[in-house]
Amino acid sequence: MSTATSDESWESYAVCRHHDPDLWFSRRTAATAIAICRTCPVLPACRTAMQRREDGLPPNHRQGIVAGLTPSQRYRLERTARRRPVPVLPPDPVPRTRKTHVPAPCGTRAAYQRHLRRREPVDEACRAANARSAGHYRRTGSTRT
Predict the structure, then answer these.
(1) What is the DSSP letter of 108?
(2) Residue 10 has what pLDDT?
């Protein structure tokens, strides 16, 4: 009587059954093991079983060539399968409008700088605010009041 369940019936058709098991656990023979796996008629079932068996294992707990993949390849395969696509959000029903910028009021250093940047005439209030700010900076070494 067979102890294999219907889920494991594919294993009797695996090509690797007729080879030395050590072939899949040596770095020297890894290329040969991978080549043998690629010719196997039950490779998809083997990969499915491997993914179920190794689900959640860290890379250092995966050993040998299984289903034609190295331990690091199997780990990457699991990680990419776990990634979920970023949901695409529907567009806003009302388009967002850009907030209008309120310029600094006259009588501040920011307004003085705006006048200079725009090559506008500088009024006395802005000129005085800039002088106060410059004097404060010379005394304290800081622009904060």
Answers:
(1) S
(2) 85
